[in-house]
UniProtKB/TrEMBL annotation:
Signal sequence region: 1-27
Source taxonomy: Bacteria, Pseudomonadati, Pseudomonadota, Alphaproteobacteria, Hyphomonadales
InterPro entries on file: HcpB-like (IPR040239), Sel1-like (IPR006597), TPR-like_helical_dom_sf (IPR011990)
Annotated family: Belongs to the hcp beta-lactamase family.
The name this protein goes by in its record: Cysteine-rich protein A
Provenance organism: Hyphomonas oceanitis SCH89
Length: 632
């Protein structure tokens, strides 16, 4: 693990104490060793021997009857009490479970059950901690306390108790559901609005909620809830649907393989919810990505990044910013890449809010990026602002940048302003003639993922805005490859917005992909048109109908051409066959004539056979003389 990620985990460790994993399951005693283990437990307080002997009797209890069963239970009580007192957390959990349900020779006693579970937790048993969390969540013998439940679940999860991780996912799910209000719409209306075209994400989420709780005459069905939430996420690009689906999947999936397809599906839903700005998804991702949970560093980085944007902190912004700047995650199922745009936005937030990492931000402004070119103006603006706040490193770097670039050219929009405010100022500049200053900021906002900037810039380029300032001779400067292809950049700007669920952008992408494919059917444009329909883009259904009609007309024309070519081929073949046969006969006739001439010409006459039979024929003179002489 890299040093950067070690520091991330160390910081998180302050909030979630990393504790030793619970002891792994031991082999139970055998018929030959159980008496020795019993003795070691009772006489030497050997808690391992206690557990092995306990497991031996527990495995045979169901098949035992009468006095034998009673004897097993008596031995199990002694073994568990002795082992728990000797520090075996798992046996303390067993005692707690037995008191909670009144089984295995113990009376039902919720107070004792909680005491033993807490003792197990203190001894490092993750399942014991999870049991304590469950008691506080349900209010079983104690007042309901979600905060205490969370504390124990996270403690259990950090100990390697996977139940704790899953219980916490389910608790967060329930808490999240409590915050979502129901509308006045009927179930029939909601189903209509969650149809396959023009999807309403909120309607899909409400249907999922009703299925989850069995409300409004909907049957209680978590599987159906998952389907509705997934539809709201994948098709309607609705953040709440992503978060709810992710939490439900991760609370209900076996964690023995954290990277199983089902677990990855849950993580991907959370990832998308966080990308769409849903803070609960980001919060849980920081827990879920830990090595003792679902173990994915990219998930931690994305969760911290989402928290940085929603509720900035020094740790979240600097750590996620540096992680996305410096590392790739090629093995990640989400196919993570060098996310320099996320890095820039996170570090800018850290600089703006806490005057930290400002030199890193300024250095990024000096480099060419996707959708934009390096900007000395904005780099100097960042350093100047940080310098005024007492950042000595920013002051020194500012002097260096001024010396290297010649200083500010013209004027600039303060890069330390809020992004939405910068967008409005840049838009005003472009529309009022200050094209260079407005374009400079608008391009950088688009690079950092500002959706309105991406859309505005794409439309502006379509309407003739140049990608850079022309020189005195009317020529563009040498542009970085990421900016030089204007048509490609327009497409990528629309595509970036479409992936966030912007209907108009999705429609633009669909039309572009269709015509770029020269009207040939392909998955790319079909998917793009489908996405535009799912998002309810204006004209998407009509465009789809026109594409289908046009494709049918082209298909019919191609079929007619093929049929015509087929008929032509048949006629050509027939003509060729007749010509070939005639030529063969002509050649045969010619050979026959040549042979007759060589044999003295042809003679015709009557051939006399046996009896009175006769017949007329023609043959070569040589044949008549040789075979029919006297009979011809």
């Amino acid at each position: 693990m890299s040093q950067a990620w070690k520091s991330i985990l160390q910081t998180l460790g302050a909030a979630i104490t990393l504790m030793a994993l619970a002891p792994s399951a031991m082999a139970e005693s055998t018929d030959a060793t159980v008496k020795a283990d019993m003795a070691a437990c009772k006489q030497a307080n050997d808690n391992k021997a206690c557990e092995q002997a306990y497991d031996f009797y527990a495995a045979r209890l169901d098949d035992a009857k009468g006095k034998k069963a009673a004897g097993y239970l008596a031995d199990m009580v002694v073994l568990a009490d002795t082992g728990c007192a000797a520090g075996n957390g798992w046996l303390c959990t067993e005692i707690g479970d037995s008191h909670e349900d009144g089984i295995k020779g113990r009376a039902e006693d919720l107070v004792l059950a909680l005491q033993y579970h807490m003792q197990a937790c203190e001894l490092g048993n993750g399942l014991g901690c999870a049991r304590v969390g469950m008691v506080h969540q349900r209010g079983k013998g104690v007042p309901k306390d979600a905060a205490e439940a969370t504390r124990y679940y996270l403690k259990a999860c950090a100990m390697g108790g996977t139940d704790g991780c899953q219980y916490q996912a389910y608790l967060v799910l329930l808490q999240y559901l409590e915050e979502i209000p129901y509308s006045e719409d009927s179930i029939e209306t909601l189903k209509s609005r969650c149809a396959d075209t023009g999807l309403d994400g909120r309607a899909c989420v409400e249907l999922g909620n009703a299925s989850f709780f069995g409300a409004y005459d909907m049957p209680e069905d978590e599987k159906q809830a998952r389907i509705y939430w997934g539809k709201g996420c994948a098709r309607a690009v609705y953040a709440q649907g992503c978060t709810l689906r992710g939490l439900l999947v991760m609370s209900d999936t076996d964690m023995s393989d954290p990277h199983s397809p089902d677990n990855l599906s849950g993580i991907q839903s959370l990832y998308r919810g966080c990308l769409l700005g849903d803070l609960p998804a980001c919060e849980f991702m920081v827990v879920a990505g830990q090595e003792y949970a679902w173990n994915d560093q990219d998930v931690i980085a994305q969760g911290m990044y989402g928290r940085c944007l929603a509720k900035p902190s020094v740790e979240d912004c600097t750590m996620s910013g540096k992680a996305f700047r410096d590392y790739r995650f090629p093995e990640h199922p989400l196919k993570g890449e060098l996310a320099s745009d996320k890095s820039m936005r996170a570090l800018t937030t850290a600089c703006r809010e806490f005057t930290i990492a400002c030199v890193d931000v300024a250095n990024s402004y000096l480099e060419d990026q996707k959708f934009t070119m390096g900007s000395a103006n904005l780099a100097i603006g960042v350093l100047e602002s940080a310098c005024e706040k007492g950042d000595a490193a920013a002051c020194a770097r500012k002097d260096e940048v001024v010396a290297e670039t010649g200083g500010v050219t013209g004027s600039y929009i303060d890069p330390m302003l809020d992004d939405d405010e910068r967008f409005l100022l840049a838009r005003f500049d472009i529309e009022s003639g200050e094209t260079q200053r407005g374009r400079e900021t608008m391009q950088w906002l688009a690079f950092m993922g500002h959706t309105h900037a991406q859309l505005y810039l794409a439309y502006a380029y379509e309407n003739g805005l140049s990608v850079a300032q022309k020189d005195a001779n009317g020529n563009l400067p040498d542009l970085p490859y990421t900016v030089s292809d204007k048509a490609k950049m327009i497409y990528e700007l629309f595509d970036a917005a479409a992936k966030k669920g912007v209907p108009d952008a999705a429609m633009k992408v669909a039309v572009t992909k269709y015509y770029e494919n020269d009207h040939e059917g392909s998955d790319s444009y079909e998917f793009a048109i489908g996405r535009a329909q799912y998002l309810g883009a204006e004209g998407a259904n009509e465009f789809y109908a026109a594409v289908v009609a046009q494709d049918k007309a082209r298909t019919d024309a191609r079929i007619a051409n093929i049929q015509a070519m087929h008929r032509q081929n048949i006629e050509s073949r027939d003509n060729m066959d007749r010509q070939t046969v005639q030529s063969a006969w002509d050649q045969y006739y010619k050979r026959q004539e040549e042979r007759k001439e060589a044999e003295g010409g042809e003679v015709c006459g009557t051939v006399y056979g046996e009896g009175n039979s006769t017949y007329r024929t023609c043959m070569s003179r040589a044949t008549a003389m040789k075979h029919y002489r006297g009979n011809f």
